[in-house]
Amino acid sequence: MRVVFSSFGGRYSDNPRAIYEALVARGADVDAVWLARPELRGDFPADVHTEEHWGPGARAALESADVIVSNDGLSREWDKQPTTTYLQTWHGTPLKRLHRDALWAPEGRLEMIMRDIARWDHLLSPNAASTPHLRSAFGFTGPVHETGYPRNDVLSAPDRGERRARVRAALGIAEHVRAVLYAPTWRDDLVLSDDGPSYDLPVDLGDLARGLGPDHVLLVRLHAMVSDRLDVQGSPPLLDVSRYPDVSELYLAADVLVTDYSSTMFDFAVTGKPIVHFTYDLEHYRDDLRGFYFDLAEIAPGPLWTTSEEVLAAIAELGRRPWAPTERYNRFRERFCSLEDGAATERVLQLFFPAAGAPARPVTTPCPRTTNRGDEHAHC
Question: 330 and 348: one domain?
Fold first, then answer.
């Protein structure tokens, strides 16, 4: 069986990585090919077969695949074979509106994405709250499998403490140091504008890191859409971890997450550690740029802050006493993290790569006859 894996345009990461490594650990008889960006080839294990992302070998691999596992769109030209199964894992619980549901998109972008969606056979959903929004955003009428996200299994794994210590040691973070992970999302109007790609942050990262005080380190994780466009300037206690291959390991290493509208909040909540929201442009993002599926002020696991001073004060307050999840935080976890039990990868393997003699066990949601747009569905 030939299986082609793709993650974020050529990275070794996310749900495809978790599925691939589980297949390797099981000794499955698969011919695995990864689509890789040349400059990121060093992030892949040495024994992994890679093809340059969107080189001739990538197209040949996709067109000869039995199964394709991707966490994002494969929107270039290639011809899907009738015998190929395309599993789209996607890459986050959607707070912000996606694709067809977004308030704004540059001309032509939606059509490009829809060409790839037409190839999908199956879609993973991290939780029941996300499923109707993923269907609506993608106009997807095929099977949706509520499995949780394979990439999050490490957050509940028995060795998560050892993994945390190993990652912190690799990053040079001493045991007594409090690690704050800043992981904002990207802004469509800055990256996809007619004036060309640009990006800026609302705060001087060096000042933010120094403002945390002694015995702290600021880990900055930029979104993949902007990590190549913005240099993270500063010296310790500031570390740029945008290129770190596995963000789940950073969740383990961190003690606090600072984010805005990123789906990192839903993943990080699996750890039970505190989340601080830096929502400096909430009205613009919510009302003009993307729009939300959920009222962030209502569902967020903690308060929303609009200035770096408020963020620093909130982090300092967290350090004054042992952290205990609030009722609000627990409601958030119950709604969005109920399937993140460490067994999501196994559920996906049962569906698409069952062991010899074991039947696949479908975990699907029924296809509604209409979406909230009133479109008729031809099939499920």
Answer: no
Polymer length of the chain? 380
Q: Is the pTM value of this prediction over 0.85?
A: yes
Distance CA 368, CA 172 (A): 50
Q: Residue 89: which CATH number?
A: 3.40.50.11820
The one-letter amino acid at 62: L
Q: Write the pLDDT tens digit of every residue in 38-67.
A: 999 999 999 999 999 989 999 999 999 999
- The tally of CA atoms less than 13 A away on the side-chain side of residue 66 is 9
CA distance 136 to 99: 9
Structural contact between residues 16 and 7, judged by C-beta atoms closer than 8 angstroms = yes
The structural domain count of the chain equals: 2
- CATH number, domain containing residue 214: 3.40.50.12580
Where in the sequence is the domain holding 139, given as residue range(s)?
Answer: 2-147+343-365
* Distance between CA atoms of residues 88 and 71, nearest Å: 6
The rounded distance, in Å, linking the Cα atoms of 133 and 155 is 25
**CA-CA distances (angstroms) from residue 235 to 164, 184, 202, 224, 275?**
23, 20, 18, 22, 24
Cα 331 from chain centre:
21
Same domain, 196 and 108: no
Token pair, residue 318, equals 């967290």
Q: What is the DSSP letter of 290?
A: S
Angle at which helices 14-26 and 344-352 cross, to 10°: 70
CA separation for the pair 183, 37 (Å, rounded): 22
Instruction: Please give the DSSP secondary-structure letter assigned to residue 153.
Output: G
Instruction: Give per-residue pLDDT as tens, 210-234.
Output: 899 889 999 999 876 655 555 666 6
